[in-house]
Design a protein that fits this description.
About 40% of the residues lie in helices and about 30% in strands. The termini are far apart. It has a 5-stranded mixed beta sheet, with helices on both faces. Strand 1 and strand 2 (about 10-20) form a beta hairpin. The chain has 5 helices and 5 strands, in the order ββαβααβαβα. The relative contact order is 0.17. It has helices at about 25-35, 55-60, 65-70, 85-95, 110-115; strands at about 1-5, 10-20, 45-50, 75-80, 100-105. The protein has about 120 residues and is of the alpha/beta class.
């Protein structure tokens, strides 16, 4: 499940994920993006992973409906988590052409926001 977090940056979606991410979650997030960015404007993603299962991560990284549809709109993708396996996933995601993806420990929130804001 995901929760949208408040952000003052109009070009960034901030999301907290916990547990299992469902297809319905991906569709709701896609609807939010469509309302705020349309189908062509780029945006950043700031994600805080709490307790999340690896099945959810696989869906997120390997092609959930949201990622497949919005991939070309992603600019920077910041992942905050204390999970070692998410660090590796972020490195793998950073190999996608045109996407800057970086992992931060959960206590590095300010550092992650600074990175998102860099031109």
């Amino acid at each position: 499940m995901y929760t949208l977090l408040y952000t003052e940056d109009p070009s960034t979606i901030a999301v907290e994920i916990e547990g299992t991410v469902t297809q319905e979650d991906a569709e709701q997030l896609d609807h939010h993006v469509e309302e705020n960015f349309g189908s062509s404007s780029t945006f950043n993603v700031f994600v805080v992973f709490n307790e999340v299962d690896r099945t959810s991560l696989k869906q997120i990284v390997e092609g959930s409906t949201f990622n497949e549809k919005r991939r070309d709109q992603f600019d920077k993708f910041a992942i905050l988590s204390d999970k070692t396996w998410l660090k590796f996933a972020a490195k793998a995601g950073g190999l996608m052409p045109g996407l800057s993806m970086k992992h931060f420990d959960k206590d590095e929130t300010d550092k992650a926001w600074d990175w998102i804001q860099e031109a």
